[in-house]
Amino acid sequence: MARALWKGAISFGLVHIPVELHKAVESHDLDLTMLDKRDFSPIGFKRYNKGSGKEVTWDNIVKGYEYSDGEYVVLSDEDLRLANPKATQTIDIMAFVDADSVPLTYYETPYYLSPGRGGDKVYALLRQTLQKAGRIAIATVVIRTRQHLCALVAVGDGIIMNTLRYATEIRSVEDLKLPGDAGITDKELKMALSLVEDMSEKWNPKEYHDTYREDVLKLVEKKVKAGQTHTLTEPTGEAPVPKASNVVDLVALLKQSLGSKGRRASAEETDEEEESAPAPRARRSSAGGASKTRSGTSSSSAKRSSASKPAAKRSTATKTATTRRKAA
């Protein structure tokens, strides 16, 4: 595990649980570099003094709060810690609530919490308490220069701290034009439920990945192979957005969706059957099968030939009898 982002303790009543904070997620965004379009050289940024215009190194940079126009109070990391030592070193549990009572819009960034030195037993106690109670803990913590609201959630053998947004950060939906019942019929709802049931499966996060990122990397490879690394593709205009019809046959669309889902499932089953089909036999076996087929064919021909012989004899006998009658 990488170096801890933060070290402190969870305050749980009179119990203090030493913990370390670690990143739980990492970004895989495309790393695009800004270039000068005239010669395609990378663009760089410099930290400079706005008064003198000269570049400033990191060693000479401090932080300050502008309390008046052009006037600053310098604040060091120690000043920020001493502003509230407890808040900067403690995850202070305020309450325990049902997990379902916190809307998804409040969840922000997850972090792993691991026990600090000597904190294994009290860490396990909090984890098992949350699991048995079926609750999550709502707490506050200061990370860098901001106090965060957060939720402590017991997951497996660990505890995840997920930062939460404050209520003042959540926008209201009152300004959105959201439909009410919209006249949905029972038949439409039943068809939609059938589609949901048909598409339901177990959650497997490994099945999903950023296909757009892969498409862009394929485009990069294609341009490199074609020698078009410095070719700027001009915009061709946005594709027209299809206009929504005022009258939509939802039942027909849902039936079509169910049918396409069924065809995809059938195609997948066919592919699986083809993959599981036995491999062709060796050439020797095939030759044996062919000789058996030829001998079978010869045998059948012989049988047909034998069956035609009595018919030929009867035909000859009939001709002889006719000749005798004419002679008489």
- Give the SSE string: EEEEHHEEHEEEHHHH
| Quantity of strands, as a count | 9
CATH architecture of one domain: Beta Barrel
Measure the end-to-end span: 120 Å
Highest CATH level, the class of one domain: Mainly Beta
Strand content is 15-25%
Neighbour order of strands in the largest sheet = 1-2-6-9-8-7-5
What does this structure look like?
It is a single chain. Helix content is 38%, strand content 22%. With 328 residues, it is of the alpha+beta class. It has a domain at 8-23 and 85-169: Beta Barrel (Ku70, Chain: A, Domain 2), CATH 2.40.290.10. The strands form 2 sheets. Strands 1-2-6-9-8-7-5 form a 7-stranded mixed beta barrel. A two-stranded antiparallel sheet has the order 3-4. A hairpin with a 2-residue loop joins strand 8 (146-155) and strand 9 (158-164). Helix 4 (186-199) runs parallel beside helix 6. The longest helix is centred in the C-terminal third of the chain and has 45 residues, at 283-327. It is extended, with a radius of gyration of 39 Å. The N and C termini lie far apart (120 Å). Mean pLDDT is 79; it is low at 280-328. One of its GO terms (biological process) is double-strand break repair via nonhomologous end joining. Homodimer. Interacts with LigD. Residues 53-181 form the Ku domain. This is Non-homologous end joining protein Ku. With LigD forms a non-homologous end joining (NHEJ) DNA repair enzyme, which repairs dsDNA breaks with reduced fidelity. Binds linear dsDNA with 5'- and 3'- overhangs but not closed circular dsDNA nor ssDNA. Recruits and stimulates the ligase activity of LigD.
